[in-house]
Write a structure and sequence with these properties.
The protein has a single domain, classed as Alpha-Beta Complex (Cyclic Phosphodiesterase, Chain: A), CATH 3.90.1140.10. Helices cover 28% and strands 42% of the residues. The chain has four helices and nine strands.
């Protein structure tokens, strides 16, 4: 199974982000937008692994008190195929502490962790986007509203590819509250 540990914003926020993504897509000649059901913040990508039980134990040990997490303005990562656009998430101390606890617990549980990339918290809106000539993506980004959401659980997700693209399936939930 291809697994990752994520934070998932409330449905209303994810639907709003999908709408903002459609506005971005209208300014591009091509690209793939993330459906609201798949919008999440990846805390740890585990890759192909059969260590689900270890990941769940690590999640249980990593949880802490619920906290609020504000979004920031959109940004992008440039790639060979096109840009990946995302809504930023503030690197607040409770988020960074949760990530550190999770990574430590995953290592202790001997769950493989591909941690080669630095942690850049974000909610992906679209991939492989190529702007139309003259498109004002700066104005689009400046017009996107920010918001705050409450982090109340960790979710172990499975990434599955089918004829419709990627689907992320929640396998287990660990409520915050310690």
């Amino acid at each position: 199974m291809r697994l990752f540990v994520a934070l998932v914003p409330p449905e209303e926020l994810r639907r709003n982000l999908e709408r903002q993504g459609r506005g971005l897509r209208a300014l591009c000649q091509r690209g793939r937008m993330v459906p609201w059901e798949n919008i999440h913040l990846t805390l740890a990508f585990l890759g192909e692994t059969d260590r689900r039980a270890g990941a769940e134990r690590a999640m249980e040990r990593a949880t802490g008190a619920p906290f609020s997490l504000p979004t920031t303005r959109p940004g992008r990562f440039s790639g060979k195929k096109g840009d990946l656009w995302w809504m930023g998430v503030e690197e607040r101390p409770p988020l960074l502490a949760l990530r550190r606890r999770l990574v430590r617990a995953l290592v202790e549980e001997e769950v493989w962790l591909d941690d080669a990339k630095s942690f850049r918290p974000h909610l992906t809106l679209g991939r492989d986007l190529r702007p139309l000539p003259g498109a004002d993506l700066t104005a689009w980004a400046a017009a996107c509203p920010t918001c705050t959401w409450r982090v109340e659980e960790l979710i172990l997700m499975e990434s599955c590819r089918d004829e419709g693209g990627l689907r992320y399936i929640p396998l287990s939930h660990r409520p915050m509250g310690k």
